[in-house]
Design a protein that fits this description.
55% helix; transmembrane helix; mainly alpha; elongated; 3 helices
Amino acid sequence: MRIGPGITLIVVGAVLAFAVRDSWSAVNLTALGIIIMLAGAAGIWLSYRLTNQRRRADTKVIDPEVERQYRTSPAHERIADEPIDVTPRRHRPGYRRLKR
């Protein structure tokens, strides 16, 4: 289930729970509406969890070119004259944010 059907279930459940004032002896429409809203919320939550799980698995932390350079170079060779600074620019000493 994606987000669209989940929102639809929440809307239909809210209409049944809060807008319909008709009574039916076999079914409590307010309880049915709340159950449908909970099912929609669970569907949205499950969709969110599954989507984020897939995104986390595909995340690369290291640039593939840098990773290849380190994997294929012999251990005794120097790769760079000085270490590569991977600190974000805003966290480096002396960085000043420009005012707009």
